[in-house]
Amino acid sequence: MGIKRRAFLFGSLAIAGAGVFGLKWSSHSARGEATAPPRRDGEGSFAAWLKIARDGTVTLYSPTIEMGQGSQTAQAQLIADELGVPFERIVVEQAPPLPGFAIAGVVEGFGAEFLGKAIEWVPQSVLDFGARQMPVQITGGSSAVRFTGALTLLRAAAGARQLLADEAASRLGVSADRLTLADGKALDPASGRAIGYGELAEAAAERRLWTDPVPRPIKAGGAVGRDVPRLDLPGKVDGSAQFGIDVQVPDMRVATLVMAPVRGGKLESVDEAPAMAVPGVEKVVRLPDAVVVVARGSGAAWKGVQALSPQFSAGGHGALSSAGIQADHARLFAADKPEKVAGSGDVAKAFAEPGAQVISADYRVPYVHHAMMEPFAMTAHLKDGKLELWGGLQDPLATRQLAAEAAGIGFDAVTLHTTLLGGGFGRRFPAQCEIIAQVVEVAKACPWPVKLIWSREQEVQHGAYRTAASARLKAALKDGKITALQTDYAQGPNVEGEVGFLYQLPATARRHFAHTTNQIDGPLRSVNANQFAFWTESFMDELAAAAGEDPYRFRRKHLAEGSREARVLDEAARLSGWGTPLPPGLGRGIAIFRCFGTIVAEVVEAGLRADGYPQVHKVTAVVDCGTTVNPRNARAQVEGAILQGLSIAMAEEITLEKGAVVQSSFPDYPVLKLAEAPRTIAVHFVESGGPLGGIGEPGLPPLAPALVNALAVASGKRVRSLPIRDQAQA
């Protein structure tokens, strides 16, 4: 039996994402269904992700959040080619935060990365059910195109294309496989007769789908591979784009807060009178670890908070310091009791092999802040047992769920109006966003809608930071090749499968020593690849030096011949002019890393300014993400990742003293300035035709090691601890 229209419109949107069109899931649960896109007469809705109007316009309901990455534009390009419509006819709207819009493709995609072939044995219906129950509507992990687009939206579009073809075949009296679907029409080449999608849509949406839809291969030539303008840019230029901090609601109040300086600390006392004396301040709300000032405007709220002198406890964390964390890491290494071990081969045997040259080095990275352009801002109104929210985080469904739990009401009693995000970089995952519970508590205490805004100082001092980590790398060299590599690393408990072994080595071991503090170890752009690339690719240069070999050639002979990695590395060396002379005082450094399904190699040309501060002159990046959907936007993403990677490598650092974060804003947490940016960033793409890879994150990891490798050549000094700052001076 085929799929009935209602199942296809409502339930199958996630089923389409999972590829299980033979399954009809129950419509008894309101949480099991999505609301179909609103339709006018003559329009057809397909799997709830798509709607086709009478004029042939296709509306894509994207479940991912736009936060500057341009992913919705790339999704529209995929849909245009799959359906066979001009890109200009695609309109993108934000999908509502409803369980039916859970992204099964994300569950499937990350499941495959973490579980490998084991995921193949999991029925797609189970993946779909899991996505709806978690619920999962994630924007992150560079998954918006490679998983959400390719595994969910494309399958829905393939189903729509099949139904349009079936309807056109019925009207033309021919078989569906005889038709060509292109330019928004179903054409019978033999007779020259054609019917536009707009004429077919309503009836096509009523049809049953009898087979699993199979998307066309993703390849350049249509909308894919073109430098189409980003769809989100006009609104950001003319000011119509709405971010969380822009929200205006009738009778709204504005609030800000001061939190316990030490994470885990509690509010002990506060005199509310000074804040209440500020004109415009209407209420002071006490939270377990913060004080919130609610006022008629943001200016009054800021002044009210500044007038307070709250007293907080340290929650038992008052002795924690950055120096203490490093000492803890050293003790973990000395105890030699790793929590998790990965790898293959016998490293101990290789280290003991006669004639083996054993080399080791220690590396360190600090906590790093996300430094989003837009600090947290969320608006809430609780009335008559119903909660209304305005704002943007990286998983709208999880936001609704956490808000419902904080309010003590059901999921269906929460309405979320999703806005754009002013950057994220991993900071806006709901589970790590205290602002959800905070704004709900404020809403409980206030009769008006309240927009809660974090100050930059609170954002810097209460982040979910890139983990502080230490690593001890040990390798055996014999006959100029690595025979064993062991990486011991101490960091927080977050260990992702994004740091697989890149090089072909006889024996490897990666040993994790878990270390937790009062800080939240959150994902930052490229997650664990961020630090793993730094110490692995820095160490490769040290091993090349020990072997007396060129760093590029040394890497090359440890990569599989004919591999995508080897081609990327070769192209980076060629395009950067590797081995050609440089002006005095400059050095070249190279690094390569694979994460989020994409391979990136970068060559940095850098030296020291007269004051001894590092200066990057040129970065050459070569990227293999399978197929580049939107080259212009992909290039911008890689450039942005390079600049952020440079900023992190040069100066960004969160330090702790007496349990509290020392830094408070950009004056003491410096981010990259224009004068410090490279004069040239050259980004090149290798079109390998492999599976779609991510593009937002993979450009960051190779930058830091390529930079320190270049500075080692230029200055003669090896840097093993970030940030670099003045360490590169000889």
What would you note in describing this structure?
It is a single chain. The protein is of the alpha+beta class and 730 residues long. Helix content is 31%, strand content 22%. It has 19 helices and 29 strands. A seven-stranded mixed β-sheet has the order 10-11-8-18-15-16-17. Strands 13-22-21-20-14 form a five-stranded mixed β-sheet, sandwiched between helices. A four-stranded mixed β-sheet has the order 1-2-3-4. The longest helix has 29 residues, at 144-172. It is globular.
Percent range of helical residues: 25-40%
Low-confidence stretches: 1-35
Q: Cα-atom Rg, whole angstroms?
A: 27 Å
Oligomer: single chain
The CATH architecture term of the largest domain is 2-Layer Sandwich
**What is the mean pLDDT?**
91
Strand order of the largest sheet: 10-11-8-18-15-16-17
Number of domains: 3
Structural class, from helix and strand content?
alpha+beta
- What is the percentage of strand-forming residues? 15-25%
Write the layout of secondary structure elements.
Elements: H1 5-18, E1 44-46, E2 50-52, E3 58-62, H2 71-83, E4 90-94, H3 104-115, H4 124-133, H5 144-172, E5 180-182, E6 185-187, E7 194-196, H6 197-205, H7 233-238, E8 253-259, E9 267-269, H8 273-276, E10 281-287, E11 290-295, H9 298-307, E12 311-312, H10 322-335, E13 340-344, H11 347-352, E14 357-365, E15 377-383, E16 386-391, H12 396-407, E17 414-418, H13 435-445, E18 450-453, H14 456-461, E19 464-465, E20 469-478, E21 481-491, E22 508-514, E23 520-521, H15 529-547, H16 551-556, H17 564-576, E24 586-595, E25 598-608, E26 614-624, H18 631-650, E27 656-657, E28 660-661, E29 680-685, H19 703-715
Parallel strand pairs: 3-4, 8-18, 16-17, 19-23, 21-22, 26-29
Antiparallel strand pairs: 1-2, 2-3, 5-6, 6-7, 8-11, 9-12, 10-11, 13-22, 14-20, 15-16, 15-18, 20-21, 24-25, 25-26, 27-28
